[in-house]
Write a structure and sequence with these properties.
Elements: H1 2-8, H2 10-15, H3 24-34, H4 38-42, H5 45-65
Amino acid sequence: MICIVSLLSRQPLYNERMNFPLLRVPILMQEALDEDRLGAFLTHRYLLAGLMVPVCLHLINGLSFYNLPSLRFPP
């Protein structure tokens, strides 16, 4: 993903007027990569919290597939 951001982010993010909130993440990734602080970006607590929500939901859903009765999750 970092390679794709590096290759494809310059033109649409900096030269065109597309101000969507979801475009802030690739911009911040590119800036962190340019300034050699990618480790600090990937360990930011809000980023980790935002990643843990879907990971936990998919983990519970995947475990309920194996008929674990204590981990029922609606589809």
